[in-house]
Design goal:
- The chain is an alpha+beta fold.
- The chain is built from 18 helices and 17 strands.
- The protein has three domains: 3-243, Bira Bifunctional Protein, Domain 2 (BirA Bifunctional Protein, domain 2), CATH 3.30.930; 262-434, no CATH class; 446-588, Threonyl-tRNA Synthetase, Chain A, domain 2 (2-Layer Sandwich), CATH 3.30.980.10.
- The strands form three sheets. Strands 1, 2, 3, 4, 5, 6, 7, 8 and 9 form a nine-stranded mixed beta sheet that branches. A five-stranded mixed beta sheet has the order 10-11-12-17-16, with helices on one face.
- Helix 3 (97-109) crosses helix 4 (136-144).
- Bound molecules: serine.
Amino acid sequence: MKSNELREKYLEFFRQKGHTILQSASIFPENDPTVLFTTAGMHPLQPYFKGQPHPSGKRLTNSQKCIRTGDIEEVGDPTHLTFFEMLGNWSLGDYFKEDAIKWSLEFLTDPKWLGIDVDRLSVTVFAGDDEVPQDTESYEIWKSLGIPEARIYLLPREDNWWGLATGPCGPDTEMFFDTGKVPCSKTCRPGCHCGKYFEIWNDVFMSYNKLADGSFGKLAQHNVDTGMGIERTIAVLNGATTIHEIDTIQPINERIKRFAKINTEPTEEQRKSINIIADHIRSATFILGDDKGVSPSNLGQGYVLRRFIRGIIRQGNLLNIKQRFLPTLAEIVMSLYSDIYPELERNKNFIMINLTQEENKFSTTLKRGLKRLGKILDETGTLTGQDAFLLFTSFGFPLEMTLEIANEKNITIDTQAFQKEFTHHKDLSRKATSGTFKSGLSDHTEKTTRLHTATHLLQQALREVLGDHVEQKGSNITPERTRFDFTHSEKLLPAEIEKVEQLVNKKIKEGLAVKSEILTPKEAKASGALGFFEDKYQTNVSVYSIGSFSKEICTGPHVKNTKEIGTFTIQKQKNIGTGLMRIRAKIEP
Ligand code: SER
């Protein structure tokens, strides 16, 4: 089976079960400044597990582009990838365990769908602990569906609980495919990493809410969040021994081999380099090819992207690839995925320009940097934090790359000094990222929500005072302030600022009702709603109106009445680029 077929079958199966098929959300989380990338299909759905109505209904499904960098050091081995696609189906306060489990089993085993032999499936269920009782319901459901008890494993929280750092979470039940290998030991069971069992699907029953202090509250509704990694499932279904043999990776590998003039079976070292390059070019292409794509930089998402790209160039160097090769590989990634993720094609120029520039830049310093590193090692036999930093600042070596090279050479590193520099860099990166999450709300607290509604008023007030050329280009809202970026070519005059402020405050005082409705993107546009973001690619959108003053496509949350907002003040304005202005504003009770 090929990846496209699995994706199509999955979405079709859940469409038939009443789910709306959504486009993948951005690879950059919208309203979550705590992480750099979308790590699961449920990531963008968090507010809806808490009860906010989703414009496309209570049953959703999609194929989500995800990046997980937690195991980036392992990439190159047979099982790890940083970029992957996750198939998922969700119930937002609709069906629960019974249907979720029944449908999972039907999709996996019915010959019309995947047709996996049921005897090759084992499942795990949450065993319970002091805080949350055992999930006996799921256990009984599996049993009633014919899974023998010997293949239903009760496992603790480390194995069978899922959620992000905070927010919606709950016990899960995981489905494992048995490769038929001999068990590695008497205790070998699903979750063991010997290669006998492969997890292919995870059904999470989200009815808990993890709070910032680590305690658990109950959500007002029962939700289902499931996730099936396409790459892993395809590998398993095709009996592949490594994830790198699948149809969406193999063509990239072949091209790398041609670049490296490898005509025979690659050595283990070569294979590792090929795997890393193929993985990283997939991630880099998807990061650049997102509608909110970032360029390589030294902070946050841009730094991770730079790390991917520079990692590819170094591995290419190890494989003796002499010419520039990144854009060619990116084209292969695009040709494999553009049908499913049309944004890749839309952003092709951005992908190509950035890859070319970064490759040109780093290819020239890589060799000099390697020479310098060799010299330092010859002279001192070790690397200090300062050395690593010199390689970073003068030759563009990501710190992790220096660490990797040292590890490969079995060099003892002055880890403490290195770590100090490294932590410092990571802190900077984190700070910068939390300050620059691209758009949206840092949280859903009352204060942020009030500022969010005020930001809608601000956009409309700016349009009335300055003209209809004003369009939102981004917003960034925390409990302290809102930051609103918009198209306008010069700073506002003091009189204009005053007018905007007065207009916003007037609308607040008028006590306008805030209402939302669900429309198709076409209807939303025809109704005059503003909306300049990717929502237009979804089947339905929610539109928020504030009296008859403002109308915008938006996912919320908002206050119910403008009276709740408080007094609005513009604090600062700044020209942030050609034709782009930024306003910072606050509210007071
Ligand atoms: N969120 C769960 C996971 O990532 C299920 O989708 O495994």
